[in-house]
Every structure is written in C-alpha cells, then in structure tokens.
Amino acid sequence: MIPADLSRAVVHAVRRAVEGGELGGAASVPERVVVERTRPGGVGEYATPVAFQVAKAAARAPRDVADVLARLLAEEPGIARVDVTGAGFLNFTLAARSEAALVREVLGAGIRYGYAADGREADPFCRARRVGPRERAVREAAGRIAASQGQSYAQERAAMTVAPVARRDGDVIAAYGQDAARWAMLCVPARETPGFTPGLLVQDESNELFRVRYAHSRARALTRNAEQLGFGAEAGEGEGEGTGSRELVRLIAEYPLVLEAAAHHRAPERLVRHLVAVADALLDHQHHVLPRGDEKPSAAHRARLALAEAAGTVLAGGLALLGVDAPDFL
Questions:
Q1: Which of 48, 53, 195, 329 is deepest in the core (most CB within 10 A)?
Q2: Residue with more model confidence, 246 or 307
C-alpha cells in the first residue's frame, strides 16, 4: 500500500461499517477522506480525523467510531498498524514497500503519477473570467490539482479568497517573467499577499524555483549521461545508505497524498513546498547515480538512475499542475 491508497481504504472501511450496521443507519460514507503525514511527536506515519466527521451523523462518540474503523483497517494488506489517539484520531503505520515497486509505478504513470483513478486534465480555470494574474494563477493551479484528484472545482470561485499582489500584477510579470511571478504567487496561501524580491531572478540554489527546475533538468541530464556510458535505468534497490535515496523514496511515495491534500484544502502552496523538498533530495542523490573513474555500471547504478528519473517525473508533473515550465536544459 502507498500513502495515497489510505484514503480509499478508509472510505471502504467506513462503508463496510455503515453497511454492517456497526455505525448506525444514519451514518454517511464520505466520498473522500484526507489522510496527512503525522506531525512531529505523533503516532505512526499518517493520520486522519475522519471519525469526527462520521461520528456527528452516527450520533456516536468519535472515539467509538475510530475504534470500529481501526479494527476494520487493521485487516487491510499494506497497513502494519493502526492506533487510535486522543478523542478519535486514526493513526497508521504502513508496511514496508520496495523502492523498485514505487519507481516502476511512477515511470509507468509518467506525469500522471499521483492522479486519482478518476483524475483528469483540467482546462484553464479562469479562461472566461476577467481577474488579475495572481487570482488567475491561484485558481488555475487549484483547479488543475482538484481535477487530478477527480474533484469538481466549480465551487472554487466562491470558496477561495485570493489576496492581490502589493503592486500592479502586470508590472510584476514584466519584471520577473511569467514562471517566476507565478511561482511567487503560488508559494504562499491564497489569502496571503505574495512577496517579490530580486532573489526570484537569481540563477543559483538560493532560489527555490531555480532549484526545482534545475533538479528536473539534472534528472534528464543523468539519463543522457548514462546513455553515453552504455547503460540505462532499471528499477531496483539502489543501496540507499549514503546516497540520499531513502529520503527521495519517501518524498516520491508521499506525492499522491500531497496532491490529495492540496486539492482538499485548495492549497497549491502545499505542492510548491513538496516540490522543493523533492528537488533538494534529488540534488543530494544525483552525485551517486553515475559510475566514477574506472567503476563499471552496476545494478545499483541502474536503480539509482531509475529513482532519479522517477523524481524528475514527479517534478515535471508537479510543475505542470502549477502552470510552470519544466525545461530539460537549464
């Protein structure tokens, strides 16, 4: 089981409990459940407050609902442990999943990795509306992310409050360019006013947008360099100690969950933060991908290359959802 499967598993458990009469006939089954990474100091790896949502309709205490769901979810393959904490929070620890299986999934799905089964491409959200560039950028990104999760974004217009930039939008775009301006507009919550500094134009690792796009281009370059050395990517176990691959695997596995949370909260900035983390982990990992000196390409090198390609795929897909270009050469 991957993190994104958890929400579907929780919905299924609620349905089983309702249909089995364990939560009473008045309880309803939510279409989607948000599962998020456990906060520091919490129990397990992931958590959800779904019991509070279900308890209200069921006229039951959230803790009672959580206990019922925990028992059902403990039977799910891929979940190693379910804990109930506080007044009714469900906490999950997943069974270990191989790096090779994750990488194959990402490379097989391409930039649609992380999309829900009913996810789709979205048309530009504000095409017919006369709004400023900041509001357009936020609403379009929120719409794309929501569509990728199979969610309707028709209510975004009424539900979101988008703060304008502190200066004329057109001046900002003219000064910083479309991609840099859009990145700055999306990296803070919609209700907050974005800031623009000369750092947006700096082409080094002090600029987060540069790091993300540079990491993507490095992933593409590693594939070209490997071809010159006579080998290609092959999913496997890349001997993660000292290569930075363990952190990269974790972040790639969490990407679908980040998309789901970003869609639920109408928060493109969550995707922005995750892409920066993926880029930083990939830039650490890149130094261990290609053979050095007289070293011959090995299965470990092929696996590390496949992991780098998977990370580059995540970056390309995430940038596309934000409406930012992901060049192969930078």
A1: 48
A2: 307
